[in-house]
Design brief:
- The chain has eight helices and no strands.
- It is an all-alpha fold.
- The longest helix has 66 residues.
- The N and C termini lie far apart (127 Å).
Length: 225
Amino acid sequence: MFVALKIGADFHQDSLAKWTAFLLCNLLLWLLYIMFQSVLVDLLPKKWNKQPLLLQHIIEEDASVETANVTSNASMGHENSSLQYAQRCKEYDQEQELQRQMMIAAIMDYTRHTMSPFVYDNEELEKLCDEIQKWTEDYMYKPAPIRLKQKLTTTDLRHFVWNIGERLGSKNNYSGQVRADFIKSMFPNIFMDMNVPQTYTDQFGEKSYSTNPEIPNWVVAFAVS
């Protein structure tokens, strides 16, 4: 306004000159104001946004840490589960092996107690136990012949092997046929006139022999023990 008055005085108070100068001054001021606002819009948000950006960065870090913790916990849980699984499998295998060793020990005791009076000598008895031991490890094992000093009937010997086969289990492939093959190979002289199908049919069928009155007392004692 002062500039407009000064210009009006220079032009001898010409109204047109004063209004023209006034409008130009106002236009210039508005332009300056708009430019100032533009500068503020560019500068101030950068300064004001520093704190939100920092807060966002902290939130993102917390989220990353939480995700890492969850992942770590899940990984540890999986590892613990795997360790427990492996440990239980190991324990089960050890239990099964212990039961198997106890079963074999019982079979060896039964063999020595039962066959000592009938085998040729102690060396032959140990050979018999060794052959039976190998049979417990491989149901297809073919034993070496065993010498006897007293004659046993085929029924006695079939009951003897049948009882051992029952301990080993038909579900573990120790079927009647397998037992018949084993006893015929172990005592070939006694079973020389009896073929395997007949041996299997006569003695190693499905029925239980623990109630058969022809079974010697020592066979019954083992069968029910």
